[in-house]
Amino acid sequence: MIVKRTLLATLAWLMWSISASAQPVIPGTNFHRMVDGTVGNLSRAYIQDPDLGTYRIGDDNEGFVAGGVLRWDYNTTRILSTISIDALRAGIGTTSTDGLILSNTTAATSGVTVQYSPRLRWTGTAWKSNATAASQTNSLIQEIRPVTGATATTFDFVWAGAAAGAGSYTTLLTLNSETGSLIIPHSSVSVLGLAFNLLTDQTGFWSDSNGLNVATAGATRLSFTPANAITMGANTQFRVATNAWVNTAPTIASGGCTAPAVTSSNGSAAFLLTIGTSCTGVKALTLTMPTAVNFWSCAGHNNTSDAAQATNVIVARATTTTAVVLTSYDRVTGLTEDFVASDTYLMACTGE
């Protein structure tokens, strides 16, 4: 009778094993051998929840299924999840506590002086519509890159990106642990280092070996150079309220002696006016100016000699937003007088 019951129990167990896609216990071990299974026909599942369990995807690769859908799987090199992962550490208060740790514990040596941290990577795709149209992959990574040192080491926290399917990453930002500086490694007037997304005309900052530059509308307007100088870009106005200095040289509109010219300038702020030759009967000259808000205010001094400066003065009159009329006066009598051939004048104009 005991033998009969044992045989019946063994038969029942074998029937259960076959129905559950399992094989008997492997001799000499404490575990069962199961068939590979699939997402819809799991190797291991629960009687009350048959779409929750595991199956073998491939060599050294197991998948975990919930709700009849593969949620995550692992192999010898990675864990892949198709669902959100929550790192829950409750009740830590104000104590800084690890939630996710990415570490490279291999010690640096004199032969291999730096060991990077594992990186965190985000990847997405976007559609390129020009021929040949295709989906392109874009990725961003974060990692720590230690820096060797004589007495103490530091590190750079690096953001790097690979856009439009590029195979390698380009450093975008670097945060240095020693200085706390945020470093933008590359920029230009067309690819700004720091830009403002509320403005669509390429407004922001960029840097090169010449210093820090301020750009608007894709053009450099102001530069702070290593030589402690501030320079203005072409057609740039420097305004204090409605006053302006414009980095565009005035030009000769009419009048003056033969071949008058603006021979050198720092825009409207300071320029040298050469009056020309053959000045008999010539007492006035008109300059074309960049556009001011209301009018131009100009002052000038005879730069030819002490004697010329003592007897002659040039006065700006009848100015408009785009023109200035310069008139020659005798400093003693206050009457207009002819320009003197080849005289030069130092001029300075402010737009108002």
What key attributes describe this structure?
42% strand, mainly beta, single chain, 5-stranded antiparallel β-sheet, 4 domains
Give the secondary structure arrangement, pairings included.
Layout (H helix, E strand, L loop, with lengths): L1 H18 L2 E4 L6 E3 L9 E2 L7 E6 L2 E6 L2 E6 L4 E3 L38 E9 L5 E14 L6 E9 L7 E7 L5 E2 L10 E2 L8 E5 L2 E6 L2 E6 L5 E3 L4 E4 L2 E4 L4 E5 L5 E5 L5 E4 L9 E5 L7 E7 L3 H6 E6 L5 E8 L13 E8 L1
Antiparallel strand pairs: 1-2, 3-4, 4-5, 5-6, 6-7, 8-9, 9-10, 10-11, 11-12, 13-14, 14-15, 15-16, 16-17, 18-19, 20-23, 21-22, 22-27, 23-26, 24-27, 25-26
Protein architecture, described:
By secondary structure, this protein is mostly beta strands. It folds into 4 domains: 35-81, no CATH class; 103-124 and 135-185; 194-233, no CATH class; 251-351, Immunoglobulin-like, CATH 2.60.40. Helix content is 7%, strand content 42%. It contains 2 helices and 27 strands. The strands form 7 sheets. It has a 5-stranded antiparallel beta sheet, with no helix packed on it. The protein has a 5-stranded antiparallel beta sheet with strand order 8-9-10-11-12, with no helix packed on it. Strand 16 (219-224) and strand 17 form a beta hairpin. The chain is elongated, with a radius of gyration of 40 Å. The termini are far apart. The relative contact order is 0.06. The mean pLDDT is 87.
